[in-house]
Amino acid sequence: MNKIGIIQQVEHGSVTLAKGFQAGGLHCGLKRKRKDLGWIYSEQPAAAAAVYTTNAYQAAPLIVTRESIAVEQKIQGVVVNSGNANACTGQPGLADAYEMRRLMADQWGIEEHLVAVASTGVIGERLPMEKVRAGIAQSTRHEYQGVEHFEEAILTTDTRTKHFAVQLEVDGQVITIGGAAKGSGMIHPNMATMLAFITTDACVEQPFLLKALREVTDQTFNMITVDGDTSTNDMILVLANGKANHQPLTPAHPDWEMFKNGLAMVCRELAKQIARDGEGATRLIEVTVKGAPSEQAARGIAKAIIGSNLVKTAVYGKDPNWGRIVCAIGYSGETFNPEQVQVKIDPVTVVDQGLPVSFKEEDAQAALGEETVTIEVNLNMGEGTATAWGCDLTYDYIKINALYRT
């Protein structure tokens, strides 16, 4: 590090960049060809914090993971399967999730309550446990170790792996925060509909780690949408194993805000990668609302715009139909003065003081053809600001989801 306190992105960084973590994955037969079983292991128990889906149907793995963390707020191993959600499977499915926890603990020689379990895939089908057992039994073999195997094993309809990491200094010691995630469909704000795993070698007391995660989630994972569906299985899990050997981080520590900013950067980049990889998507949409009476109001309007299917299809068709944007602002439920609103399909201003302005159609179409389409709304009412991310809605989204089980 060149300067104390600076946050630096680490190219190709992920969940194993932090000291004391390893990960791997393999194909055990839940999917036809692609890897479908992954794991993360920490050399020592790590402080653990998690945020879960708000869907009333809580999949069995989430119940088991909650129970594991509740014992002593620590996790040492994580086992994840894709291809099968183990959701809506009743008591037999819960027993399968407990068995996955026990098998992982036995294979890696750790306490059972130090294992978290996650699943993703088709809802309502029992796990073929004979395949899961065989897979976990091979998880300690050298040939299956490697973060790239883990990143592949957690995917479902994703078209790419998702990872990001940063490094910063705490008490003069370099610490790392790295993450990997999956998510492509069933992505909608409140809460974080996907799986994300974040590791750090920082020493953070668990209550403060959970507080930081909740705050950061509201600004990042809770500000993305692909299709408006909230899944049954989704979770963000953060593990801090303290291997960086510095004084424990608390809000009173001088480097606390720097740590929280690093965590936010990792979560934000993973969230954007998920939004860009929305099923069938061709472009990332970034909506920033400023000048709102409060941050909450800014978030509400940004979410309304990014969640509008009409806005999403207009972006796909490169149609600068600003009426769809102001319509979404209007039904957001937030308070604003329509006569003060300005809208940009950046850099082209399309609405000012609530009224349409003259613009060159070809300039707006060019803006809508960029890899990242930026929409900016200024309410001119206050200091509230928020940003949300999503993607365009294409014909391929229908194709992918019409054939999901076949």
TrEMBL record:
Catalytic EC class: transferase
EC number: 2.3.1.35, 2.3.1.1
GO cellular component terms, semicolon-separated: cytoplasm
Annotated positions for site Cleavage: A192, T193
Swiss-Prot/TrEMBL site (Involved in the stabilization of negative charge on the oxyanion by the formation of the oxyanion hole) positions: T120, G121
Pathway assignment: Amino-acid biosynthesis; L-arginine biosynthesis; N(2)-acetyl-L-ornithine from L-glutamate: step 1/4; Amino-acid biosynthesis; L-arginine biosynthesis; L-ornithine and N-acetyl-L-glutamate from L-glutamate and N(2)-acetyl-L-ornithine (cyclic): step 1/1
Keywords: Acyltransferase, Amino-acid biosynthesis, Arginine biosynthesis, Autocatalytic cleavage, Cytoplasm, Multifunctional enzyme, Transferase
GO molecular function, one term: L-glutamate N-acetyltransferase activity
Catalytic activity: N(2)-acetyl-L-ornithine + L-glutamate = N-acetyl-L-glutamate + L-ornithine; L-glutamate + acetyl-CoA = N-acetyl-L-glutamate + CoA + H(+)
Cellular localisation: Cytoplasm
Function, in words: Catalyzes two activities which are involved in the cyclic version of arginine biosynthesis: the synthesis of N-acetylglutamate from glutamate and acetyl-CoA as the acetyl donor, and of ornithine by transacetylation between N(2)-acetylornithine and glutamate.
Subunit structure as annotated in this protein's UniProt entry: Heterotetramer of two alpha and two beta chains.
Protein name per Swiss-Prot or TrEMBL: Arginine biosynthesis bifunctional protein ArgJ
Species assigned in the record: Caldalkalibacillus thermarum (strain TA2.A1)
Gene name of the encoded protein: argJ
